[in-house]
Amino acid sequence: MKNIIVPVDFSEQSEYALRLAASLAKKHGSKILALHMLELNQAMISSSEGIFPEQTVFLLKLAEKRFGEFLDKPYLEGLKVTPIVKHFKVFSEVNEVAEKHHADLVVMGSHGTDGLKEIFVGSNAEKVVRNSNIPVLIVKDELIDFKVDRFVFACDFKDGSLPAFQKAKEFAELLSATLELVYINTPGDNFLSTGDAYNRINKFLQKANAGLEVKIYNDYNVERGVLNYSESISADCIGIPTHGRKGLSHFFMGSIGEDIANHSKIPVVTFKI
């Protein structure tokens, strides 16, 4: 894990993300890229009138000043932290920063239960998740020492989830965590018999060349199943696949993936398919 991006809006939640990123950086020798996006428009930057460029310079200097104060934390001592200020709230720029600096992970804060709180001014965590090509770790509470012993990864065990599974497996290995795979079996059209479920799972694991066990957990819906299973085994982190801009994966239809991130008491990391 070379570089970790932390979106910063100077809120308490972004500080939670920064502290978690610092914990990871110390363990893996990573650098932190603190990313802030300003609420500027093209007219303010390119106008030939005097007032807009002056306002732009003022806002940039203000952001730099706030960055200096925000990053003056004891837990960042000894770490390489690079502040990055972007003019726009364009989520594709997260990928540009990630590619330029070879980042492996985005760590960001969220309020959670009332919906994914805006981490950039005028934006929200969901958009970052959907635009990011690298895993996004969402945290809602302060975790002084982020240690993952049991990492739950839930998916539909169809071929489309193979890329996300491989990334989740690498993530678990990086953190020296036990990877707990689970298939959530629900009533209705998506219900599978035990035999059919294991048949699908075994084919998936063969293609993934992974000799791992998978738990079949029955619940009324996928969200409750993932959260209840994770709680039952005292998991430290939950992993879910996403399709990025195409929306949440078929397994997490509608807002299920977002609901898992919102309602989970533990950090959630998303892996783009």
TrEMBL record:
InterPro entries: Rossmann-like_a/b/a_fold, Universal_stress_UspA, UspA
Matching Pfam families: Usp
Domain UspA: 1-140, 149-271
Family statement: Belongs to the universal stress protein A family.
Protein name in the entry: Nucleotide-binding universal stress protein, UspA family
Organism name: Kriegella aquimaris
